[in-house]
Design a protein that fits this description.
Elements lengths: L47 H15 L22 E6 L6 H4 L7 E6 L6 H14 L3 E7 L3 H12 L5 H9 L1 H8 L5 H18 L5 H5 L4 E7 L6 E2 L5
Parallel strand pairs: 1-2, 1-3, 3-4
Antiparallel strand pairs: 4-5
């Protein structure tokens, strides 16, 4: 059942309501003004398309080094002044999203869970980026050879309970496991992609994010990392 914004810590009814107060104009704290600083990509609020293009271009520079062999960190770039995107990734994705996307430290608001599963706390953490920081893009990032998905599928096939630390994640992966195991091809790969699609769909219906999505100030997209090359597959588009 969709959650009501009334029960949320954050709302979009006219102004952002968070500890410390909200901007008087009702804009998220990361939104840019109209002064000279608005000409700097880090000093203004990017559009969803601009943010997605930055990640595409950054990954194009990094792809080919391989996810496991990629150099850690932001490549010596100075720290970003505000995040350009929020990334919900898996705990065992072998390289930091900042490196995958060629971004400086602080340029991404990264949340990691087993197989990028959602619960109320995680969803609230994702909401924080667009609502409080003005992040225009949320990326749900799956990856090849996901250990959490493999464990969930194995326990499902064997009819056993997964290890305690994966039991909750496996329960949240049940629907994606049904989708993935019933499709032709590699069951782990199919399940990861099905899970990404399901999480994207849920975030697009999030009552706190929905007003931003409807106004075109936010986009939520799925992506998939190829482990051997470090290439990230993005949705079709500019």
């Amino acid at each position: 059942m969709p959650r009501s914004p009334r029960n949320h810590r954050w709302t979009l009814r006219g102004a952002v309501c968070l500890p410390g107060g909200a901007p008087r104009d009702g804009r998220p704290r990361g939104a840019a003004g109209t002064g000279a600083e608005g000409t700097d990509a880090q000093e203004r609020r990017l559009t969803p398309a601009e943010a997605l293009r930055l990640l595409r271009e950054g990954n194009a520079r990094r792809a080919g080094r391989g996810a496991r062999g990629a150099r850690r960190g932001g490549g010596g770039c100075p720290a970003a002044r505000r995040p350009v995107a929020a990334v919900l990734a898996c705990v065992d994705c072998p390289v930091p999203p900042e490196t995958l996307f060629g971004q400086a430290p602080g340029a991404l608001l990264v949340i990691r869970t087993a197989a990028h599963t959602l619960d109320a706390t995680v969803e609230g953490s994702v909401e924080y980026g667009p609502v409080e920081l003005g992040v225009p893009l949320v990326v749900v990032l799956g990856h090849e050879h996901c250990g959490a998905v493999a464990a969930a599928l194995e326990s499902r096939t064997a009819g056993t309970r997964p290890p305690a630390h994966l039991a909750v994640a496996a329960a949240r992966l049940a629907a994606a496991c049904r989708d993935g195991s019933g499709a032709p091809g590699d069951a782990v790969e199919n399940t990861v992609r099905a899970q990404t699609d399901r999480v994207v769909a849920r975030l697009r219906e999030d009552p706190v994010l929905l007003p931003l999505l409807r106004r075109g100030e936010l986009e939520v997209v799925g992506a998939h990392c190829r482990e051997e090359t470090g290439e990230v597959e993005f949705p079709a588009g500019p």
